[in-house]
């Protein structure tokens, strides 16, 4: 058949890869990080401990944990020269645009951690990225609202530091509520890694060319931005607001089922999960806790979300297509209640996913078998033919 090639299965491709980091059973709705179920990690662990687990394969001892936390805590500031980099963006730039630019430029400031052949430099780059992503995300936010940057503090936890850098202002003392910090830390944990999703595969493909770690992570941030992927949390909250009230839900459910309508229920469905996304269950509990704490239990957006979930899960179409809420369905409600604009939802996802990208990047580089990444294609175009001069066409 013209144009159809059988290709030599002999060459290595990054179309698939072995990994020991994250396991997903989409039918059972199971997610394990180095064997530990995500709900146990979300309830009993914390983000930096999960970072150590993802990077090293085992939970840390007390000494290992304290050393790791100390390393991350003491690298949260960014090079002062990078502050000027932010000022090149328009104030109304989406914070994801700023993050892609600033993270991609990090190799220009941290020359001593770009040689991927040196395991020590790889480790330094990994620590720098985990430590500095909250600072970069918070600075992107502050810049977008015209407020001064707030420097990181070493006396605050990772999540509390991020909230402080986002919401503190020089004119006023901002005390981080420990329950909000716990909820923020749990959101980071729930987004830490997720097997070979689009942005992680982007990072792996970039790393297979030998690109420096900052360039690889910037590529992952760019891919995550899409509304079908990490951009869904922003799109989901905007959708819930557009629905506005429970009596408008049926109209949107019908639109989501109409093949001629491009509308999709944001926060619903998944490439892998054909059952509940286990992260969505934990996120839903956190939403109730945070809104109770903030005294906004009757949050109309949460009411619409819960009713939408109830109706969709009973609808034959969604049952047949096995569409369930995913990680993005409730996260935006919590972030909105915390005071974040929707434009900061995906930057927070990128901040949290950095450790997953880094762990997968390190695993890729440790694989001596891997040749340059080149996904396969099935050629369906024209076979060789002669050029026709313009006057004869
Ligand atoms: C993330 O890969 C990851 O792990 C990603 C992620 C991570 O942690 O990295 O989990 C994060 O990206 C979560 C997904 C966030 N995206 C959204 O919430 C956007 C809305 N969801 C859809 O765009 C969609 O569900 C996808 C893109 C996520 C998955 O699309 P697929 O692969 O087409 O899903 P599917 O094969 O299960 O769909 C089955 C059917 C299809 O219809 P048919 O072609 O069979 O007729 O259901 C339809 C889809 O068109 N469908 C939906 C739908 N999602 C799928 N119909 C209405 N609303 C939806 N949300």
Entry keywords:
393 residues, mainly alpha, three-stranded antiparallel sheet, 17 helices, 3 strands, globular, binds s-citryldethia Coenzyme A
Can you walk me through this structure?
It is a single chain. This protein is an all-alpha fold and 393 residues long. The chain contains 17 helices and three strands. Strands 1-2-3 form a three-stranded antiparallel β-sheet. Helix 5 runs antiparallel to helix 10 (213-224), helix 9 (198-207) crosses helix 17 (345-365) and helix 13 packs parallel to helix 16 (328-338). It is globular. It binds s-citryldethia Coenzyme A (SDX).
Bound molecules: s-citryldethia Coenzyme A
Give start-end ranges of low-pLDDT stretches: 1-14
Shape: globular
Question: Which oligomerization state do the chains in this entry correspond to?
Answer: single chain
Distance linking N and C termini: 27 Å
Category from helices, strands and their pairing: mainly alpha
Order of helices and strands: EEEHHHHHHHHHHHHHHHHH
The tally of helices reads 17
Radius of gyration: 22 Å
Count of extended strands? 3
Percent strand equals: under 5%
Give the spatial strand order of the biggest sheet: 1-2-3
Helix content bin: 40-55%
Mean pLDDT across residues: 92
Biggest sheet character: 3 strands, antiparallel
Pathway: Carbohydrate metabolism; tricarboxylic acid cycle; isocitrate from oxaloacetate: step 1/2
Family: Belongs to the citrate synthase family.
GO molecular function: citrate synthase activity
Organism: Marivivens donghaensis
């Amino acid at each position: 058949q013209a144009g159809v090639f059988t290709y030599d299965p002999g060459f290595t491709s990054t179309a698939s890869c072995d990994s020991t980091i994250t396991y997903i059973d989409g039918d059972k709705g199971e997610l394990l990080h180095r064997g530990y179920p995500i709900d146990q990690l979300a309830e009993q662990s914390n983000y930096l401990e999960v970072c150590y687990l993802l990077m090293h394969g085992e939970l840390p001892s007390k000494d290992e944990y304290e050393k790791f936390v100390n390393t991350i805590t003491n690298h949260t500031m960014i090079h002062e020269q990078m502050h000027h980099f932010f000022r090149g963006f328009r104030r109304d730039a989406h914070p994801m645009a700023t993050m892609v630019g600033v993270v991609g430029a990090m190799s220009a400031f941290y020359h001593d951690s770009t040689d991927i052949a040196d395991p020590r430099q790889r480790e330094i780059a990994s620590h720098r990225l985990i430590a500095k992503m909250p600072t970069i995300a918070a600075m992107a936010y502050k810049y977008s609202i015209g407020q001064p940057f707030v420097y990181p503090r070493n006396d605050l936890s990772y999540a509390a530091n991020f909230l402080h850098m986002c919401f503190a202002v020089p004119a006023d003392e901002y005390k981080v509520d420990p329950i909000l910090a716990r909820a923020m830390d749990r959101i980071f944990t729930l987004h830490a890694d997720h097997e070979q999703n689009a942005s992680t595969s982007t990072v792996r493909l970039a790393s297979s060319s030998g690109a420096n770690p900052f360039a690889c992570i910037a590529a992952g941030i760019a891919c995550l931005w899409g509304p079908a992927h990490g951009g869904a949390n922003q799109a989901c909250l905007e959708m819930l607001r557009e629905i506005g009230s429970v009596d408008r839900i049926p109209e949107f459910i019908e639109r989501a089922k109409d093949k001629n309508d491009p509308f999709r229920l944001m926060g619903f469905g998944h490439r892998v999960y054909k059952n509940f996304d286990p992260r969505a269950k934990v996120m839903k509990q956190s939403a109730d806790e945070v809104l109770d704490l903030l005294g906004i239990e009757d949050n109309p957006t949460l009411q619409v979300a819960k009713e939408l979930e109830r109706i969709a899960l009973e609808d034959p179409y969604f049952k047949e297509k096995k569409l369930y809420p995913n990680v993005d369905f409730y996260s935006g409600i919590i972030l909105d209640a915390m005071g974040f604009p929707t434009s900061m939802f995906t930057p927070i996802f990128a901040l949290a996913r950095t450790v997953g990208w880094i762990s997968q990047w390190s695993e890729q580089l440790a694989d001596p078998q891997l040749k340059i990444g080149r996904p396969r294609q099935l050629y369906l175009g024209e076979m060789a033919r002669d050029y026709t001069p313009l006057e004869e066409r």
